[in-house]
Amino acid sequence: MLSLATSYLFSNKVRLLLTVLSIAIAVFSIVSLVSISEGMREQITSQLEQFGPRSMVVIPTAQSRITFTPGAFRPTTGVLTDKDYYALKSLPFISTIARSISRYVFVEFKEERAKINVFAVEPVAFQDVVFVDVEKGRFLKEGERGAAVIGAKIADLFDESLDINSKIKIEGRVFRVVGVLEEKGNSFFPIDNVIIIPYDDGKEVFDTKEISAIRLTVSEGKNIQEAEKEIKEALRLKRGVKEGEEDFSILSSRFVEQRFTAVLDLVSALFIGTAFVSFVVGAVGIANTVLMSFFERVREIGVLRAVGAKRRFILTLFLMESVLLGAMGGVIGSGGAALLSLFLEVYKFRVEYALAGIILAAFVGGLAGYLPAKKAADLDIAEALRYE
To answer: In terms of domains, do 71 and 145 share one?
Structure first.
């Protein structure tokens, strides 16, 4: 029976290809979606671990106006000052706290210029809340001036060799490179693409008393949500704003996870909708192919029935063809999804996803081919033999 079903399917290769392709696209879409979603969730989980479950970042912008990417948080409006910093530092449950100033400015190295994100930090406090590893040289020392540490990808922005002891200019002031950080890849703090200088230098170079962000860590034993509420209350009191009118935001791992999950769920819903439409189109294609097969083989069905073939045999034969169409599309679609893992970093392909895709495609094929198969099985023998 299997050889009979396959021989007829391959008798019209163009129709076979078009039908299988429609199912393959649907399977490719859904397996790729699941793989990308899984990969993104793992990456987000990994980055949240780097962020720290007890860490928070205060930025001077209302929560409704936050704009961020997986690479960084950047304030868009508002002002933080030393008053806010010391108000938070006085809270008993804050174990570590660090303020920073960040600006996108032109950095000069020899005859070249590049616009780079420059962070001014307090060295010891910064290392307590942001875990950085130095690949070459060293990190900034407390009280040091005129020194800079560069991210792993900063040297790539210049044609000349930028390394330890190189001198760069930031807003006209000369800084000596004392360290190069290890590459971290994608993270919530864009450590690979920044230059870090001492906090006091930053205030002078950028001519500002404003703070771009306050990073802090909550002590063990303190409930994170309670700590967040108390931090908000302290800042509202210091800044003289009412609840619901905050001109600042607190970014915690919970907040970040919720935002990313919401975005990921929306993208997943769009992909699922696309995959559903693809499956419907594929199912219609299979139903059409099996129906055409029925009309082309009416006399053959009549002969089979006349020599003793039962209705169940005819039903099974046509169902087998439709299931094979679906399964072949599933294999091709899953294979394409597996190849995609060679080109995408955010991709977590598993064999289980491929098997599920093939089984789903075969099921859809069987479902789509049932009515044409039943029509073939119920065909009257006399009418079939008279059919021209």
So the answer is: yes
Tokens of 5: 């079903």
- The total domain count for the chain is 2
Residue (of 354, 353, 352) closest to 335 by Cα position: 354
Render pLDDT for 89-98 as a digit per residue (tens, 0 to 9): 999 999 989 9
pLDDT tens column, 212-267: 999 998 998 899 889 999 999 999 998 888 888 888 888 877 777 777 777 778 87
Q: Is residue 316 part of a domain?
A: yes
Last residue of one domain, picked from the residues 247, 282, 311: 247
Q: Residue 54 falls within a domain, yes or no?
A: no
| Residue 60, C-beta contacts closer than 8 angstroms, at least 6 positions apart | 75, 77, 78, 79, 80, 210, 211, 212, 247, 248
Read off the tokens for 292: 């055409």
CB 215, CB 250: distance < 8 Å: no
Q: How many of the other CB atoms lie within 10 Å of CB of 110? A: 14
Is residue 79 situated within a structural domain? yes
What secondary structure letter does DSSP report for 193? G
- Determine, yes or no, domain membership for 255: no
Alpha-carbon distances of 375 from 52, 162, 280, 298, rounded to whole Å: 63, 76, 21, 11
Q: How far is residue 27's CA from residue 253's CA, in Å, rounded to a whole number? A: 34
